Amino acid sequence: MPTTAPAFADATASDSALRRFLHGLPGVDTVGLEARAASLGTRSIKTTAKAYAIDLAISMIDLTTLEGADTPGKVRALAAKAVNPDPTDRTTPRTAAVCVYPDMAATAVAALAGSGVKVASVATAFPAGRAALDVKLADVRDAVAAGADEIDMVIDRGAFLSGRYLKVYEEIVAVKAECGSARLKVIFETGELSTYDNIRRASWLGMLAGADFIKTSTGKVGTNATPANTLLMLEAVRDFREQTGVQIGVKPAGGIRTTKDAIKFLVLVNETAGEDWLDNHWFRFGASSLLNDLLMQRQKLSTGRYSGPDYVTVD
Amino acid sequence: MSDGRLSVFKTYKLYVGGKFPRSESGRVYEVSDSKGRWLANAPQSSRKDARDAVVAARKAFGGWSGATAYNRGQILYRVAEMLEGRREQFVREVADAEGLSKSKAAAVVDAAVDRWVWYAGWTDKIGQVVGGANPVAGPFFNLSTPEPTGVVAVLAPQKSSFLGLVSVIAPVIATGNTAVVIASADAPLPALSLGEVLATSDLPGGVVNILSGKTAEIAAPLASHQDVNGIDLTGADAELAKELEIAAADNLKRVSRPSVSHHHPEKEAHSATRPQAVDGDDWSADPGTRRLTAFLETKTVWHPTGALGASGSSY
User: Is Lyase one of the keywords UniProt gives this record (chain A) (predicted)?
Assistant: First the structure.
């Protein structure tokens, strides 16, 4: 697989060429972007469309636990929930994946064997990414060896913000090479990139370097996925496919807690990238508490009465 | 307007989660006094307002039920203090709502203030009255304590718009429950103003949530709501009370039925002209402890005295 789409081979030839390319991307109209994200968030999705959206959103969740206090028991419990989110209703779809730290990947793989639910592992010194390249690569190798189907890496924000784009690019390329058949999600930590222009540049940088997914954030900083930054990234993957024919996935993560929020994101996907992305191969939610809210809304739709936190699992 | 000054009309709003929102539905309805003259518009709550109120009440439950009984008593007394300071306003609103003379309305407001004081005193005493050590035939120290039921939906009386209202809210929250209150449909203004008093009385947001609108429309989703633990049907007529009690059975809600009459209940039960009374209660009477105990659950612990160690001590 070529790491760079041929159309942009020149752009990644040198540090200065890459900088010229990224800074040559059109500037982001902040007011326009936020207004568009807000206006798409006002769509009213009801009844059968809502039921469809809820099931789709459940099937797109990367059910995540990234805590220092994670235990094998907790990972197994989360895996059981991913396979069978609502034990009272077997028609509930499975989540897309379970997302854990590399040392828990093997536990998750064993617990999910044969279920079709994938195992995603964060790597590259998540969440800060402050480690030497060979340490990061060892982290990735570890996760891949443990059987992870997907690797969620973080970019070096320090290098990105100081303008050393080629360093970031080469790091992503190196990680991609270690992934083998595992799909690579590249986390930008949009909350640390300061501007929308930077998010657009990071998106293109990630896509040029061979990311299979671009992902907003780690969930470990104050600002996580927002409708506006996700809209911006969806525009980037749309434009990238138009120019190269290569489709890239998008994963907003962190801070999406309610069904209402999730449906807003699905509207953004449909209206920006298009129906091709309305599939868990191309769009994911990085979330944990979101699933319970989706399940409660699902129960409300099927029974007609409001559900409560007593009727979903405590994670 | 002979002095040329424009009237400043008050916008009555709901009280949910410590805030004063309009109805999510955007609807209002006209409220008139006992002679049919327009007084104000009140928000007409929808089932989503009810849902939001339950979420707020659930969120407040941990803190409120965990507060010391002494602290709850202090806060309820504070409500009485704040109410006393706004006596004139409530006298006017009660006189308008119930068609009372100013002096009679003043007596009603005074009684309502006194009722807060009454229940403020009960917060740290009800435990001794309905709980305590039980004599058991075995080597056990056996202790029962009352605990609050949880989130309680309260249908306030339809006729007694203020004294009746206070008489159903105060006992529910005195014991540590949180409440979603449906105000009298025809006379909601004193209830909506009470929200302003509660908001300035150190009562944590969400402990009491006040909704106005059509009683049946708001009560139905509350009765079937899986995250509501009890329902007080005081403001429902016989037919509605029956429907709601059936819906409430689904998650085994604790139900407090409306009282039909105070006198000779055994005769009334056999009478063909059984009154379909709303407000069978005499709100000026000594309230007793019935409403305090309606939403309490008794927890009993058995502590083996034989396990106390070598000291040979037994309780």
Answer: yes
